[in-house]
Structure formats: C-alpha cells, structure tokens
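BUG: 3D viewer hangs when loading the predicted structure for this chain

Environment: internal workstation, default settings.
Expected: structure renders.
Actual: progress bar stalls at 90%.

Input used:
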Amino acid sequence: MSQLDELTRLASDLAGSRAWWGQRNHDEAAETRVLNVEARGRGTYSVTVFNSVGTIGLPGLTLIVKPKIPIEHFIHVARRGLFSTSRRDRSPSYLAEGVEFSELVAMWLVAGVEELLRAGLEDDYTVVDERSSAVRGSIDVPATVVGWLRGDSRVACAFDEFSTDSPLNRVLRAALVSVSANHQMSHATRSAAAGLVRQMWEVGDLHPSDMNVQPRRGQLRYSETLGLAKQVLRAIGRSLETGGVRSSTFLFATPTLIEDGIRVILSSRLAPIVVRRHGRVLLPSSVSVNPDLEVGPPPFTGDVKYKVSDASWNRADLAQAVFFATAYRSPRALIVNFRNREVGPQDFLHVGDVRVGTATWDARPDAAPQESEDALVQDVRRVLDLAA
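Structure tokens produced before the viewer hung:
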C-alpha cells in the first residue's frame, strides 16, 4: 500500500463523531474530518491534521503531530482530562522512548489484554517445585536429603504442569499490577488494569526469568501485548519524536482534552467551590447554552480556548464569553487561554453589565508547568473575585 493510499484510509477510519472531537452541537453532521490531503504537484502532498495531537504511521514514514504548546505543559493539563480517550489505528509508527506518553502505552496494554482474555488465555507448561509424598518428575536430591534431616519425609520434586500460570501470562499480569498502582495515571486506566488483574486470578507473581520469555509458534497473538507489558515494567513510554520503538497510530482530540483538563484542575484547586460543565436552555426556545466552565454558586461562566494568545482581545472569544455570561445573568465572564511570551496582566473589559477577564497559562518553554498552574488558579480567583 502506498503512503497516499494509507493516508486516505486513515482519514476515513480515524474520523470520529463531532461530539468526540469537541464539536458539541449535535445538530451538525455526524462525522468530521481528521486529515486533509492536498496534492502539491510532482507526486508530493501536503497533510493537514485538525485539532489533534499524536502520530500517523505510513509505509516508510512516521508523521508527528505536536501540540501548540510545549509537550511538558500539554501533558500536565491533558493527563487531568480524558487522557484515556484517543483514536487508535494498528498501522505502525516509530517513536522515541520517553515518559510523556507512558499512560498511552498502558492503555494499549489494557486493550491488548482485554482482547486476549476474550479469546482465552493460553495454557502452557511451567515448572513447579514442591515437596510431595509421591515422586513426580525429577527429584531434587540435595533438597530432599536436607528435608529428611529436618524431619520432613516428603520428596522435593520438579515437574511440568499445564496451566494458565505461565511466564507469558505472569508478565502481562505483573504489568497490569504496575499500572493499577501507578497514581501518575488516570483513574480510568488504573481501574481498568485492576479489573483485568482480578480476572487473571489463576496467574501467579512474576518470576525473575519470566522477562526473557518470547511467544512460541501458536502464541503469536501475544507478541504485541507482551512487548507492551515488558515496556511498562521497564518504564518505557513514548515521546512525540521519531525513533526506533514500534508504536501505533494515535490521535488525541486536543480542544476537548485541554478543556477537560483545565476544568479538573480548577475543580480540585478551587474546592469547595463547584467547577463543572452544565448547560441550560434559553426558554421558551430550544437554544442551548454550554459554557466550558460554570463556577459557583452563584454561577459565573468561563470559556477555555486552546490557543496561544497575545495581550489583545480576540473579538470572537470576547463575544462568546459575553453571550455565556448574559445567558446565565452572570456579572463576570472568564476566558482561559495560553501564552508563549511574557505579558503583563490584562485589564478587565466591561461589556454592558458584564466584566470580562482573562486567566492565562504561561506556556513558555522555560516555565515550570506546576508554577503555570498555580498562576492560572490565582488569575481565575482574581477575575471572578473568589476568596483564596
């Protein structure tokens, strides 16, 4: 298959609903484009990827789709949102090792183990060492003699047993246990991993030699998932750079991901003040109003814009923020955005009875993400006059 043919297929297969890609108006068409391919002449093409971050694997080529802001800041916000939601295709891409997308590897592991469990885990021969009154397999003479000297009349035996407790399955289970205990990952990913561990109750703990196991003929369906399990146990994630680690094509819908992440951050940092997304209908019409943030009570409204802004007002963003506030009869409106250069605090803007202010995430490469989060929360308190 040519690169162009593969791109055409991915453009169709990766397309999701508008709701998934962040288009909340369900009156619009059910499908939305993810990729646009345009001929440039002489056998070359330009590829545009809409509102997403990730990688696209083509024959002999890996395309990297990077976020608008530095990856450290993107991951800091994104992992608070629905980071466990992504579009994936099995077409291979090749990325460098990194910690940024460790959860993505864990998500692929969870999906792979779920698939293996649906088809049934492979039983295999495994060596069992035990003391028995009847001889089975080979006798461990030194261990048997030591037992006799201690008053134990049983024989130390080593024999093969056909069971689910095999090296392959022990590696998978150990990796799932690691994911379920990793509090750097989302609750959804950890819960899914813990649920799979409970289903693998017949599988024992990892043996030191298990990490050397490779699928034999007839066990090749384990290959990809086993590789992911070993990467989890060795803490090998992915970065958005080309490299030699086999991966899959994946795309995250960035507007929704960032919006959800900001909302979770503010909900945690402003507690007990409630921060949520909760729309209302302008009766007696059927027109709905759905601000990204409802902060209160009383309900103040806010809008999250995943864009790098300067110190000037964007009229479209301003109009939307005022519309939300007016519909809620809120005296204050908040716009959350990002910046990549140093700017002073932006003055409030009064539009009729609504006072509009901005809270900005400092996304400069030399800014620490946690410090940017702290500053954003302070900005939100200032704009909405919330007590610290």
